[in-house]
């Protein structure tokens, strides 16, 4: 069965959410289509509803924004809900949510929001994958070093999707020390600020 994969990040190519979808698609032997919700020309509401009618599995991959979902992704889900409620579907929903901070558990509220949406739409809940320190995906090849556990989690998710199985959320963060992650984050934040004409002191003032 085909899988429809929707990315809810404004960062399309090169973004972390897209990275996870590409990796998952590879593990599904290419069986699945990836669309970006931000780009409305990529996936229409009609096409999404048709996928629900066909009983295709759905994968949402998105970044955590303010402990929740990006606003346009939430808007997409709200729009779809009105029509999805009237569709009888065997589609099962899978979720990959990644966040910038180290702790994977921070993604839990966003996952609960998606499951609530599934209940409202009458869709089956599959499994969620919560990835902490999402930016680490560019630090090593998938399956190697800090990304060994992330690779195993994606394999599990692919197996679940292939067998239309449900399961508890998998929480995973790269095998990398927290203090080093924070240290590197501070360095890159300062560098990004500088590129945009902001000093370290300016950033601190903005965050107050
Ligand atoms: C507006 C905004 C809000 C964010 N809020 C959080 C947050 O509450 N917690 C967190 O850990 N990361 C937060 N992040 C970081 C993103 O979740 C993180 O960088 C993610 O890996 C981006 O994925 P993407 O490349 O697919 O967009 C936020 C980022 C932005 C731009």
Task: Kindly describe this structure.
With 208 residues, the protein is α/β, with parallel strands linked by helices. The chain folds into 2 domains: 173 residues, Rossmann fold, CATH 3.40.50; 32 residues, no CATH class. Helix content is 44%, strand content 16%. It contains 7 helices and 6 strands, in the order βαβαβαβαβαβαα. The chain has a 6-stranded parallel beta sheet, sandwiched between helices. Helix 1 packs across helix 5 and helix 2 crosses helix 3. The longest helix has 18 residues. The N and C termini lie far apart (49 Å). The mean pLDDT is 92.
Strand order of the largest sheet: 2-1-3-4-5-6
The helix content, as a percent range, equals 40-55%
**Largest sheet features:** 6 strands, parallel
Shape: globular
By DSSP (H or I, 4+ residues per run), the number of helices equals: 7
> What small-molecule ligands were found?
flavin mononucleotide
Mean pLDDT: 92
Highest-level CATH class of the largest domain: Alpha Beta
The assigned CATH architecture of the largest domain is 3-Layer(aba) Sandwich
Please indicate the percent range of residues in DSSP E strands (runs of 2 or more).
15-25%
Radius of gyration: 18 Å
Q: What's the β-strand tally? A: 6
Low-confidence stretches: none
> Terminal Cα separation, in Å?
49 Å
Number of domains: 2
CATH topology of the largest domain: Rossmann fold
Give the helix/strand class: alpha/beta
CATH homologous superfamily name of the largest domain? Flavodoxin domain
